[in-house]
Amino acid sequence: MKIVPDTSAVIDGRVSERVEEGTYAGADILVPEAVVSELESQANDGRDTGWDGLSELQRLAEFADEGEISLQYLGRRPTSDETKGAREGDIDALIRDFAAEHDATLLTSDSVQAEIAKAKNLSVEYVDAVVRGSGGLIIEQFFDDQTMSVHLKTDTKPKAKRGDVGDMHYRIIDEEVTGESTMREWADDIVNSARASPDGFIELSEPGMNIVQFRDYRIAIARPPFADGIEITAVRPIVKTDLDDYEFADELRDRLAERQRGVLIAGSPGAGKSTFAQAVAEFLNNSDYAVKTMEKPRDLQVGPEITQYTALAGDMAKTADSLLLVRPDYTIYDEVRKTKDFSVFADMRLAGVGMVGVVHATRAIDALQRLVGRVELGMIPQVVDTVVYIEAGQVHTVYDVTTQVKVPEGLAAEDLARPVIQVRDFETSTPKFEIYTFNRQVVTVPLGDGGEKSETGVSRLARQEIEREIRSIARGHVDVELKNQNRAVVYVDDDDISYVIGKGGGRISDVEERLGIEIDVRTHDENPSNKAPGVGGSGGSGGSGGSPSGTNAEPSGGLVVTPEITSRHVIIRMDGHVGETVEVRADDQYLFTATVGRGGDIQVSRGSAIADELENAIDRKMQITVVPA
């Protein structure tokens, strides 16, 4: 009797089982090298099936040594292309050809393999596949009514997040440390049960990582070398809500039911974003909208009428193409994170599909800002018109997003009008933020009550832009003072005045035209805020007591200096101190240590980290001092 077992029969241990019961006593067991190759590949990937199959081959070798069977390894190893095509049946075909060539009976627990072999008139013995796993969820013992997630890892105590939504606590739930053998047993049971049970499926299977969906549990299993030990993280929703459970329920219902919209549901991890998204999905489904979901992994707890789609061939763009043929009214996209996710979200929304995306963000406005640079600025309100921020399981903030052509808040010149994205509080219609382009940059400006700019809004932005422009022209220090929305005063060194203004005022006029603001150029001596000792003024020969040029004696023994800023360097004059090692400080805060050069000065190249710190200190009117190191 010649028997050729395929990979499935070897993995399930069906050959040794028949040898032990006497069915294959004295049989010639011919193992194709293709089977060995496939088991080796699975074992290298860390899959238990590979290790089980190798253990079976070792048992067969023991039977052969005892004379109960004859064991031979024959045939050729599959090529790399055939190995890659294992899922398409390339290796199964090799095994069938091997059995036909040796006029042997094919033993298999793969029903498809058996049917094809019968169709080719081969001798086939089919045995039922071994059911692996307990069929249940072995780690369910760690969950109670208030447990959102369980966290298990080799050589650690089991932990869980328990509590109410928004008030979760990470705590030890068992004082006994979990050993590696136990973790391996639990991990194998979860994967095998998911494969065998109609209640579960494998969402992702990669070397070192499995993601399993089993009933309402989402379970991530990490193994070495991907992780430094076996880790199991199981998550499940602890509440299922209705839209009526949230603030603004009536307004949100009317808004969503009015027409297809673009909505971002934002919040920090564990805040309850997905729970709210489920409530929105159920409401839309009950409002005669065709609703689908896009999830990877699929863990939203929605009714059977809502079909849940995952990444098709690992690509959500392909899922989107398929969904456009299905023609949903609304699609729930859980989780929108990467640039490609935002692109898919925008494409579907612009195709007319209502989109609800779940986004990680620590503030409501942050969710909208994640679209900047990923979606053309002017299209953002067409892609997202509503932002819902969830905190501690409740609706904290709702923003209405629109676009207008207007002069941004804080500016007044009519020729500065441009498309502005206005973000308003949904409840009060008060403007909260404006997003627009300013000097080729996209900026988000927070607004105060009534739409007035805050201290960190347009004024700061305008001042920074003016300072940047003038610094590119001036050779020395630059100060900027905003007088009003349309006028600024720039203070520069005496010898920079004519250079900044330019011949016939042409250079400063160009800057005014670029920035859209009137600029008055003056010297530092004319700056009312620049009269502190050691700052501004004439400098020149310095003070009494033989202090070096640009310095004043300080009672503490340090020297107050006035650094000079040129196009390439920040220079501190230290005449009479050549070769000394000194510390440079700002308001007595240490900046750096330097040695005075042979020219009697310290030079720091602009653009370096040290120069940036020094210039920032100068801009903040901090007192620059030099003390012996």
From TrEMBL:
InterPro entries: KH_dom, KH_dom-like_a/b, KH_sf_prok-type, Nucleic_acid_metab_PIN/TRAM, P-loop_NTPase, PIN-like_dom_sf, PIN_dom, T2SS/T4SS_dom. It comes from the Archaea. GO terms for molecular function: RNA binding. Coiled coil: none annotated. In the N-terminal section; belongs to the PINc/VapC protein family. Gene3D superfamilies: 3.30.300.20, 5'-nuclease, P-loop containing nucleotide triphosphate hydrolases. It comes from Haloferax namakaokahaiae. NCBIfam families: PRK13764.1 (NF010335). This is PINc/VapC family ATPase. Keywords: RNA-binding. It holds the Pfam family PIN. Residues 521-559 are annotated as: Disordered. Residues 534-548 have a biased composition (Gly residues). Residues 484-594 form the K Homology domain. Residues 1-115 form the PIN domain.
